[in-house]
Amino acid sequence: MTSLAKQAETIRAGGGAKAIERQHAKGRxxxxxxxxxxxxxxxxxxEIGLFAxxxxxxxxxxxxxxxxxxxxxxxxxxxxxxxxxxxxxKAGAFFPMTCKKVLRAQxxxxxxxxxxxxxxxxxxxxxPLQDEVFPDEDDFGRIFRNNAVISAxxxxxxxxxxxxxxxxxxxLPVMCDQLLMTEGSGLYLAGPALVKAxxxxxxxxxxxxxxxxxxxxxxxxxxxxxxDPRCLERLRRLVGALPADVPRVDFSKRPAxxxxxxxxxxxxxxxxxxxILDDAPFDEYKAEYGQTIxxxxxxxxxxxxxxxxxxxxxxKPAVGPLQYGGVIYVDSAEKAARFVMDCNQSRTPILFFxxxxxxxxxxxxxxxxxxxxxxxxVNVISNSVVPKITLITGGSYGAGNYALCGKAFDPRLILAxxxxxxxxxxxxxxxxxxxxxxxxxxxxxxxxxDAKELDELRAKVKAAYDESTDIRYAAARLWIDAIVxxxxxxxxxxxxxAIATRHDSGREFKTGVLQV
Length: 516
Known about the structure:
Layout: H1 3-12, H2 17-25, H3 31-38, E1 46-48, E2 68-75, E3 78-85, H4 96-112, E4 116-122, H5 130-133, H6 140-152, E5 157-166, H7 171-174, E6 178-182, E7 186-188, H8 192-199, H9 205-209, H10 211-216, E8 223-225, H11 228-240, H12 269-276, E9 283-285, E10 293-300, E11 303-310, E12 327-328, H13 330-345, E13 350-356, E14 358-359, H14 363-368, H15 370-382, E15 388-397, H16 398-403, E16 413-416, E17 421-423, H17 427-444, H18 451-469, H19 471-476, E18 482-483, H20 489-500
Parallel strand pairs: 3-4, 4-5, 5-6, 5-7, 6-8, 11-13, 12-14, 13-15, 15-16, 15-17, 16-18
Antiparallel strand pairs: 1-2, 2-3, 9-10, 10-11
Helix pairs in contact: 4-6, 13-15, 17-18
């Protein structure tokens, strides 16, 4: 088992064996056990954000997977977005990254018109970090705003309270279309102790916010369930009453090549595409022009897709010097921009394969208009209305990340291989730059570092920068949705495409002013 797989296994254990025992002692299942019973037999959860908060909040004992499990699962043969609080992690409390993870899941569901199922079991905001959880537009309150907006757009939302649901967190399930609640759970703005302290009233948990009270007196819940298994059975029936999915992606199709090519050093990205796309013709667009980006139309699961991929081998243009793989030149930027516009014209989804060092620099490139060409590509990707899915296989550096549909440019899903690197520039260049800054600061303070000290500083700076470029660092901050093993790439992209092609908003494609 790889170190990444071991870490993933540890994360899936949530708060650990003792916390799981405590959950079971209450007669409750864990979040992952609930999901396993909810989704269809012999299917898996397409998990979003497994590595969320990885390596963060160490001073508070950590928050594996940000204390919430999110992903797309099949329930009664319908794809739904599942958001399940993990009560084994700090009683399911909301850390800052918990909010961001739930918001990301809601956004994916909204854009792709996926029904949402919330399995609520949370103590509310993690109070020591309340200032980072509570007030901003991408914090706790935004979740409830999204509940309202998603509902107004006609996307079904079903919630099941299966444990604690306190304070402001109580609004989430109550703002859903249908609400279930298990015996022993609690739904209230303030618990018995806080009510006693605030107004001097003594009241039991059940009278204040138990399932029986909300079913028979407040009328807040729609279904009262005796336990988790019965609650999940009803959830499956309710989801089964929703309109059936319309299948668009054929998972039985096969690629032209079964084995992925080696992707270290130089390689022809077309070899990678042959191992991922269907065994069908690939119509390469402007194949002899702008060769450091390969564009073309192929099929994935029988669905026509546009492809924009960094070429990783050196290319010889018809005119001019050799061009380096992974670098975006004026001609390749202009070609990719035109191709993205064509895909929007034909309403064709686009797959982006990132392994990019950035844009070409230097006098010749600047005089040829590299900034203008790059701005054109960024413009058309920003205004694109077709589904976009991004896979990072290697480097994702600087403005190259932007130009190939990084997180800031609204991909429906963004995925990465374990070998991917995420940074404004490569480690060696950045380390030298950061080292120079530190050395100048030491000199201004009257200290001239010797050769040994310089070597130690360089190693320290390089190690810190390399840690921040590791893809787990990006995954922890939700800059990507999932880390994908290379051998699982095709299966993952098929599922991603099935999610992303559920809905076409019909929005008109327009770019505003383009640099020409």
